[in-house]
Structures are given as C-alpha cells and as structure tokens.
Write a structure and sequence with these properties.
Elements: E1 12-14, E2 20-27, E3 32-37, E4 42-46, H1 47-53, E5 56-58, H2 71-74, H3 86-93
Antiparallel strand pairs: 1-2, 1-5, 2-3, 3-4
C-alpha cells in the first residue's frame, strides 16, 4: 500500500480514528515523528507506523488555538501586580553606589 501523504512538519492531519494532529518534528535518525494533537497533547509515532495510520492531510483548523484556551487561567496574579514598577525597584537599589 502506498502512502498517500508523506509526513511534513507544520501540516495538519486526521487519522482514520478521527484524531486531529499536527507534525511538530521529524527525527530521521530515530525514525520517529513527533505530533501534537489538537488538545495540546504531544505524542510520537514511529515512521513505519505512518503508512498504517493512513492519515488525511487537512488545512489548519479554524480555531487551532484549542490547546491554548486555558492559558489565561494559568497566568500568575503577580503578572499584573503593580508592585513590579520602577519606583518599587528603586527602593531596593537605595544606598548602592557604582
């Protein structure tokens, strides 16, 4: 059976089991393909499994930011903290001379 689509970094594919994934790296030496599923999970395939997977190449999903939807919740509250200003750091440097 001939491979319909060769794996290419940056391309999106859908497996026969309907999983949507993007190729993020190909390691010729180890003969592996690193993939990232739409939900952000990273996985690895052996190149000899590619043909059996029979993936279809797709355009990037309209909302391919799916894996990044929860980043807003993970931002530390200190990121928006006003205490990290020039004035607050000046007090730390008081008394320090070159």
């Amino acid at each position: 059976m001939a491979v319909k689509y060769e794996p290419e970094i940056g391309n999106w594919y859908q497996s026969s089991s309907s999983l949507l994934f993007k190729i993020v790296a190909i390691d010729e030496q180890d003969e592996t393909i690193e993939i990232q599923y739409f939900d952000g999970t990273v996985g690895e395939l052996e190149m000899d499994l590619w043909e059996g997977l029979a993936p279809e190449m797709l355009d990037a999903p309209d909302d391919w930011s799916g894996p990044f939807d929860d980043l807003e919740d993970e931002i530390s509250p200190s990121y928006n903290d006003d205490s990290n200003t020039r004035k607050s750091w000046d007090s730390v440097l008081e008394g320090y001379e070159d």
